[in-house]
Amino acid sequence: MQTGATSQGNVLSVLRSLSPRARLFLWAMALTRLTGFMVFPFLTVILSQQLGASIVEIGSLFTVAAFVGLGTSPVAGFIADRISKKFLMQLGVGLTIASLLAMGLIREISVYYGAIILMSVAGGMLEPLLRSTLGELAETDAQRPALFHLRYYMVNIAGAIGPVLGLWFIQTQSPAVFFIAAASFVFLAGVIHFKQPKLPTPADPLNAPVRRNIWVSVLGHRMFVALFVANFLLVFIYAQTDEPLTFHMIDRGVPDIAGIVTVLTVTNTVVVLVLHGLFMNRIMAMGEGLAFRVAIGCLCLSLVLIAANGAHLLWIWIAAIAISTLGEIIAMPMFLTIVDRIAPAENRNAYFGIYMLSNTGGALAPFLAASLITGFGGTTLFIGAALCCIPLAVVGAIALRHTTQTPETESTDAPL
């Protein structure tokens, strides 16, 4: 990782070093994640226990929604590189607000299905543009890695509080949680409108040859392609500790699933807060090859623990989530930092949008996991996921070998 980022200091000193605009963006993004954690971890429980959907139906819904959102991301990135991206960001926020209000006002399964799909479209618009905006708020190149780590850290602070607050709303079946989440996105809309960095608008918007040249540039970038494939595998394997684990609990008839989901979500976040907060500098300074090996080892071990937990002991699930979180702390910000480092300034939004397609691995996970659990059981699923760490280690090694190249030796137009 870029050692220059470590000179920014610990979490508090990094935050103080930012401009007021950057801090406001970070707080707005963290607030929407806070309210999101009050809603999203419990959607599986709401659909299953309150609206009567099966785990296969839920898995299919989440898979379709994820693919719709992923397909939106590169389109949004292409458009944002050709025209002002503020309109696209505001449109994404507006769609999210409408979806949250619909779920709060109408308790019908068809409305929830439509709202979840619509939120995926909105998320596909917002996520790559918010990430590229974060890079634009950096005052120096050395500050970019620190910004991504700080964003990651603040999002997880929200994750520590959100599920605890959301649990009461879910248990009482109160729709107020959806209205609170909608209000947080209204605040984000205001921040985007008044604090969006002003960048020059390209003179040749939406030109078809330009779009084709972007694809040539991306596909010819060896580092980016290898990183894309590695992240695809990483996200697919890591996603097994999310909805698939909940499906596994539902299939086994584990009691108080909502409470367990809350404990595991908070476990994930607390580990991030403690380890990332205390050792952020050391993690950022860790060599990328070593960091990746540690991350994959943690992920594999966590899946083996889940597979071996036939007695449904809570402490084993907690230990597995804590270990997998160690890998998450290292790998996720590291990959985003590399993308931000290698993306050309004139195509930054498009690169982030295309990179979002690598999350297809996570989009496949709910449906495949639900099908495998139904047919073969959760133990088979998690053992198979652990074995998938082997090809991930191979592809990741190839990707990180390219990151050691200098800008002079890594051409964005070089053939694969």
Automatic annotation (TrEMBL):
Localisation: Cell membrane
- Bilayer-spanning residue ranges: 24-46, 58-80, 87-106, 112-130, 150-170, 176-194, 214-237, 257-278, 290-308, 314-339, 351-373, 379-400
Which keywords has UniProt assigned to this entry? Cell membrane, Membrane, Transmembrane, Transmembrane helix, Transport
The record's annotation in Pfam families points to: MFS_1
Question: Where does the source fall among the domains of life?
Answer: Bacteria
Which InterPro entries does the annotation name?
Answer: MFS, MFS_trans_sf, MFS_Transporters
Query: Membrane topology type, per the record?
Result: Multi-pass membrane protein
**Chief location bin:** membrane
What are the record's GO terms for cellular component? Answer: plasma membrane
- A GO molecular function held by the record: transmembrane transporter activity
Q: What is this protein called?
A: MFS transporter
